[in-house]
Structures are given as C-alpha cells and as structure tokens.
C-alpha cells in the first residue's frame, strides 16, 4: 500500500518524523539540563566554598585547621576530608575553578552523591574533599554560621565585608532589618531564640519556587542575615521550553520539506513537459518512477502525449490518404459524365450511368469507412457492453457473407451456445465482418471462423484463410490506415486499407489486442482478436 501511494508515504513519514523530533527534543533537553544542573550545583557551592577556605586559612597552625574542619563536618553532618593535592585527579576545568577560589563539583547520578572539592587559601598542596549525599534543612540552616564566623573578625564592618564576599555567591547575601521581611509572629519568635528559619516562596514568575535562609546576628536585635532567595532548579524553564519547541518546529519543517521535495520535483517536471507540449513539442516523455500517484501521473502524461502525437500523425495521414482515395472515383465519375454528354447510344449511356452509380456507392463506402476510423481514432467511443452469445454473432456474419455469393467456402468451427462474452455488439460484429471480408478478398478457396474463451479468461475470435498469407515483416503494417502491402492487395481486390485499422482500434478500446500470423492448417493468414471476456466483475451477494 505504501509503495503505491505517495500520500500514505508522506503521512507515515510525518509520523516517523514527529517521533524522531520528539526523541531528539527529549535527548537535547537531557543534555542541556545535565549541563544546567552541573552549573546550578557549582553556583550553590561557590560562595560557601570560599568562606570555608577563608575560615581554614585563618587558623594559626595545622592542629587548629584540623579541629576547624572537624567542627565544620559535625555542623554540616557531612564527611569532610583534608587530602593532599596529588591524590585528587582534577580536569583542566576543575583546576581553573579552584584557581578562581570556586568549588569543583562531581555528581554521581547512579548513587545520587555529590563530591565537592575545595581549594585552600595559601595551601595549594591540599584540598578539602566533601561527600554530600543529600541536603537537609539542618544543613541549610548551618550555612549562615560559616558566614557569621567570617564576619566576626570584622566587628562593626559586617555589611562592608559582606558586600565584598557577596560576589562569590550566585544568590543575594545581605543583612536586613527583621521588620522589612514578610515574617509572621512565630518566625520572629524563633529568630529571637537564635534559631535560623527557612522561607519558601512560590512565584508565578520565571524564577518559580525560591528558598531563603534567615539567621539572627549575635549582638544585633533587629538585624538578620538573609541568604537568598535561591531559586530551586527548574527542569523545564520557559526559555528552554520555548527554545526546544522552536528548534523542534524548525527541524520538523525541514523534514516535511524533505518529504514533499520529491513530489514537488516531479510536479515541476510535469509542468515543464506541459509547457513544452503547449509550445508544440510532443516528443518529451516523463520518467516513470514507481507506481504511486506521481508515477501514475507521469505514465498518464506519456500515454496522453503518445495518443495526441498519434492522433496528429493519423490526421495528417488520413488527409493525405483521403485526398488520394477520393481522387480516383471522382475522376471516373467526371469521365463518365463527359461520356454521357457526348454519347447518343442509349444502351451505352445506361452502362455509363451504372458505372457512375457504382463509383458513387464506392464513395459512400469510403466515407463510411473514414468516419468509422476517425471516430475510433480520435477518442474513447461510447461503448455499451452487454452479454453476447458468441456463436450467434459468428453465425450471423457467416450467413451474411454467404449471401454475397463470393464462391468461397466458409467454415464455422463448432462452438457451444453457452459461451457468453462482454462486448459492444455493433463493434464486435464489425470486427468479425471486416476480418471475414478481408479473408474473402485474399483467400484461394476456404475461410475458417472460430471463437471462444481461453484459459486466461480472454475472449477471442479467429479468422483464417488459405491464401498467400502475410510476410512476417509486414504483419504490423496491415493495421495502418490505407496500408497496401503489394500488388496482390490492390483496389482490384476491393477495400480501401481501413478495415484492419478499424479492427485494431476496436480491439484497443475493448482493452484487447489483434494479432496476425500464419494459419497452421490452411497455410494463409490468421487474424486473432482477444479481449477480456468479463468487462465488469460483480460482487457476490452474501
């Protein structure tokens, strides 16, 4: 089905294309989000990594550094290791981040663990190695403690130094008044008890849900340290969704164009061929690629071009032949009229009138043949197919031929009366009549007529004679209009060279063929016309 319908192939291609574009969009989102998630993790840890590095650097000796690291691990409830630099294999990107006082984050998606590597100020030979498997509310509340510990070294200058280190954070870190925050009485009470609180805010903006950590500042009753708002990671932000949608539509449009391009190219070829035909050039033929609608269109165009070209050639040949065929009887009629004008003998005048009458009859027959041939040649005639008992039609033609007293023996091979074929009675009668008439003119003594339905379901009529036959190289020429092969087939034998052409066209419009070869039994010519015995296949009633 897909092979024979270009539209079904396009529809199927569209379905496949949509699936591929959807898969492409999904993979692209995953790849982009992998990088976004990595950048998000790094942005959350950069500021705290800087503060921890500063806190360790302030310790005067190695033992106090280790104690500070141990206290930080207990506070965060995370394992923190103080390792030598040669035990950690860092990539070029990670080394660059550590040199910029940022954290290097490695995420293990299989175990959902993050490993944070922090460089130490004034100690390039060691790193802090932190393993974080989850982030709890207690750990988030512990983060402000590191900032407050850092600010404790600058009493009275907390805001100035906080502003300096805020550049290392990807989110706001500032000191605000309690009354400036949207807090309820319970939250304010917890701050007065020196407890940190976490604020969740849902927003319809692009930022979405955010988290803020509010921590009281020792010695400041009305001031608090606010970290945030920190937006939660959004797996499908508006910008990403819009970008992926536009890119998918662009890829889909390219795919649709690729699916339609072959059909567009073939239509362009058809338009070009039609323009050439309009200019009078009928020699161009289209390549027939496949059996779909476009292939059928190309085949129909080629058939139409062949038919138009053949019609034009047939019209030219007809005009030449008609002018030639009409010239002889007209000349004889003119000669007969001149003789009538000059002759006084009554019997001779009667003889001339009879000859003129025969010539007029010949003209009528010629015109009838020409009209029949032209009607069959120019286009599809109006055919009224019906069930015909084949033996009745063959017997009628045999009887009509014997009535002409041709002195030729006509043999009709036995045929069952139950053999019925689909045909136009008038035209089938004309076929058998023309074939038999042709055989009568060129046989020696005997003609044989037969018919039936073969094993392939094709109906056929066959006319054989015992004449000289037709040479193999001339067998196709006999079906051309006004064709005469040799001196044995002259006007003396009768006919105008149109009978077999008419048979050929009737066979064509019947959907069949006409062939000529040598009769094996009689030795002369054998003409066989075959066509589908069943024109219409009717569905059986259930």
From TrEMBL:
Phylogenetic lineage: Bacteria, Pseudomonadati, Pseudomonadota, Gammaproteobacteria, Moraxellales
EC number: 2.7.13.3
Catalyzed reactions per annotation: ATP + protein L-histidine = ADP + protein N-phospho-L-histidine
All residue ranges annotated as the HAMP domain in the record: 261-313
Residue ranges of the TM segments: 6-29, 211-232, 238-260
Record-linked PANTHER family: SENSOR PROTEIN CREC, SENSOR PROTEIN RSTB
Gene that this sequence comes from: bfmS
Membrane topology annotation: Multi-pass membrane protein
Keywords, comma-separated and alphabetical: ATP-binding, Cell membrane, Kinase, Membrane, Nucleotide-binding, Phosphoprotein, Transferase, Transmembrane, Transmembrane helix
Primary localisation category: membrane
Lineage: superkingdom: Bacteria
Name of the protein this chain belongs to: histidine kinase
Enzymatic class: transferase
Subcellular location: Cell membrane
GO molecular function, one term: phosphorelay sensor kinase activity
Pfam family, any one: HATPase_c
């Amino acid at each position: 089905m897909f092979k024979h319908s270009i539209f079904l192939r396009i529809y199927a291609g569209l379905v496949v294309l949509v699936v591929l574009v959807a898969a492409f969009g999904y993979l692209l989102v995953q790849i982009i989000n992998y990088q976004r998630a990595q950048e998000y993790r790094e942005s959350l840890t950069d500021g705290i990594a800087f503060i921890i590095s500063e806190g360790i650097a302030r310790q005067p000796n190695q033992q106090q550094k280790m104690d500070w690291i141990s206290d930080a691990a207990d506070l965060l409830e995370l394992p923190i290791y103080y390792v030598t630099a040669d035990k950690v294999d860092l990539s070029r990107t990670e080394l660059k981040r550590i040199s910029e006082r940022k954290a290097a984050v490695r995420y293990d998606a299989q175990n959902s663990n993050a490993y944070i590597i922090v460089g130490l100020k004034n100690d390039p030979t060691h790193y802090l190695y932190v393993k974080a498997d989850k982030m709890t509310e207690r750990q988030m509340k512990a983060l402000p403690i590191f900032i407050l510990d850092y600010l404790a070294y600058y009493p009275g200058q907390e805001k100035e130094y906080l502003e300096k280190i805020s550049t290392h954070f990807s989110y706001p870190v500032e000191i605000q008044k309690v009354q400036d925050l949207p807090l309820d009485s319970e939250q304010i009470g917890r701050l007065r008890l020196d407890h940190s609180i976490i604020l969740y805010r849902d927003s319809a903006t692009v930022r979405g849900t955010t988290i803020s950590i509010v921590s009281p500042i020792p010695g400041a009753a009305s001031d608090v340290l606010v970290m945030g708002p920190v937006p939660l990671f959004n797996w499908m932000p508006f910008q990403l969704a819009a970008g992926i949608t536009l890119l998918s539509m662009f890829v889909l449009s390219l795919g649709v164009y690729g699916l339609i391009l072959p059909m567009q190219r073939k239509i362009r070829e058809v338009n070009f061929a039609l323009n050439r035909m309009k200019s009078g050039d009928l020699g161009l033929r289209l390549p027939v690629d496949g059996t779909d609608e476009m292939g059928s269109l190309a085949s129909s165009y080629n058939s139409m071009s062949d038919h138009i070209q053949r019609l034009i050639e047939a019209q030219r040949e007809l005009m030449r032949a008609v002018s030639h065929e009409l010239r002889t009887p007209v000349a004889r009629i003119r000669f007969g009229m001149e003789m009538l004008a000059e002759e006084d003998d009554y019997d001779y005048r009667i003889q001339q009138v009879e000859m003129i009458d025969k010539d007029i009859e010949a003209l009528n027959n010629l015109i009838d043949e020409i009209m029949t041939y032209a009607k069959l040649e120019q286009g599809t005639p109006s055919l009224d197919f019906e069930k015909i008992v084949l033996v009745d039609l063959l017997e009628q033609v045999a009887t009509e031929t014997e009535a002409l007293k041709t002195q030729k023996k006509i043999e009709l091979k036995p045929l069952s009366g139950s053999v019925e074929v689909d045909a136009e009675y008038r035209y089938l009668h004309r076929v058998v009549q023309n074939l038999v008439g042709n055989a009568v003119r060129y046989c020696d003594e005997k003609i044989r007529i037969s018919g039936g339905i073969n094993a392939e379901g094709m109906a056929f009529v066959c006319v054989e004679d015992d004449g000289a036959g037709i040479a193999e190289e001339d067998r196709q020429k006999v079906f051309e209009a006004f064709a005469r092969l040799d001196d044995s087939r002259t006007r003396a034998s009768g006919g105008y060279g149109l009978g077999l052409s008419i048979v050929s066209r009737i066979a064509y419009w019947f959907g069949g063929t006409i062939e000529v070869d040598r009769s094996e039994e009689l030795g002369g010519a054998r003409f066989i016309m075959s066509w589908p015995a069943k024109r219409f296949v009717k569905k059986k009633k259930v």
